[in-house]
Amino acid sequence: MSDPMSDPMSGPAADPAADPGGWPVTATRHLLSIADLGRDGINEVMRVTDSFVEVGRRAIPKVPALRGKTVVSLFCEDSTRTRLSFETAARRLSADTMNFSASSSSLSKGESLRDTVETIDAMGVHALVVRHFSAGVPWQVASWVSAAVVNAGDGWHEHPTQALLDCYTIRESIGADAGLEGLRIAIVGDVKHSRVARSNVLAFSALGAEVTIVAPPTLLPPSLAGWPVVVSNDLDGVLPKSDVVYLLRLQTERATESLLPSVREYTAGYGLTRERGALLAERALVMHPGPMNRGVEIAAELAGLPNSLVTRQVANGVAVRMAVLYLLLGSGADLGA
Ligand code: ASP
Ligand code: CP
């Protein structure tokens, strides 16, 4: 398998031998990268998500679409939003769920990841939702199992369902018909260590947005070859020209060296401080994938303003993940049931 980190803009899922399927997901077995989808695939997920948003508004937000299917959360790295929203999504589709926690599993007795996932697969499960601290693990898992694999975040590489829920949330805010065509989106912060940035650059640009990444030079990837972005280190200059400002957390758990003089200095140059909030365009939207470090990349009071979409992102995450599971495992049941 090729190393997904060698060229972040053309990861291993682009290799047709690795995943011969194509979107719509009903025709493909896995969701590993935004590159699997392209513009049409993303729009297909958005369309199906609309139905599940409607389901979520019902008194009993549940449909029988995946009755008899089993969805396993296989998380080898911490998570709050992604894990809980996939589990909620699976239950709302009437799937059975299984929860695997690396720390309490036989991985701690020395069992290999391959033996572990093959063991789970042998139980007859239908989907594995995989988060791992190493880039490329979901591709490896997909090559070992017969179940569908969904990448829930692999190392610095990709987080495709985060990008899908972000696209959906922007669309919801500006009007679904407007799309993202020509929208000016600034992604600000620790791009180097961010799988969210990689998936979002692919998704936003596939939908026609103009993406600018803003980061100190030490927090940019070593090469930006193939990234469809403009690069800046002047946040004050970029803010007034942006329709969407997407902030990233400093991924200190992934940094192996000291890349910043201090967190305080980072905030002074690249944080959306209260003072910088005044530079935002009138209707600019503020986004963050969470977890937020309030006071570092975003001032606490700005995270709670009406133009902040952070809570909408989380809410839409459930419906988007329902759409992904439904498209991958689709039973053909009537969504309106
Ligand atoms: N939760 C997102 C991720 O897992 C972003 C972050 O952790 O900062 O990539
Ligand atoms: N945004 C995101 O992936 O959050 P978690 O790490 O809490 O899942």
Give an account of the 3D structure.
This protein has 337 residues and is α/β, with parallel strands linked by helices. The chain has 2 domains: 4-159 and 316-329, Rossmann fold; 160-314, Rossmann fold. It has 11 helices and 9 strands. The strands form 2 sheets. Strands 7-6-5-8-9 form a 5-stranded parallel sheet, covered by helices on one side. Strands 2-1-3-4 form a 4-stranded parallel sheet, with helices on both faces. Strand 5, helix 6 (195-206) and strand 6 (210-214) form a beta-alpha-beta unit. Helix 1 (38-56) crosses helix 11 (310-329). The relative contact order is 0.17. Mean pLDDT is 89; it is low at 1-8, 10-27 and 333-337. Bound molecules: aspartic acid and phosphoric acid mono(formamide)ester.
Number of domains as seen in the coordinates:
2
What characterizes the major β-sheet? 5 strands, parallel
Average of pLDDT: 89
What's the CATH class of the largest domain, please?
A: Alpha Beta
Give every kind of bound small molecule, once each: aspartic acid, phosphoric acid mono(formamide)ester
Overall radius of gyration: 19 Å
Strand content: 5-15%
Number of helices: 11
What's the arrangement of strands in the largest beta sheet? 7-6-5-8-9
Instruction: Please state the second-level CATH architecture of the largest domain.
Output: 3-Layer(aba) Sandwich
CATH fold node name of the largest domain: Rossmann fold
The counted number of beta strands is: 9
Give the N-terminus to C-terminus distance in angstroms: 42 Å
CATH superfamily of the largest domain: Aspartate/ornithine carbamoyltransferase
What spatial form do the alpha-carbon principal axes imply?
Answer: globular
Q: Can you write the helix and strand succession as a string?
A: HEHEHEHEHEHEEHEHHEHH
As residue ranges, the low-confidence spans are: 1-8, 10-27, 333-337
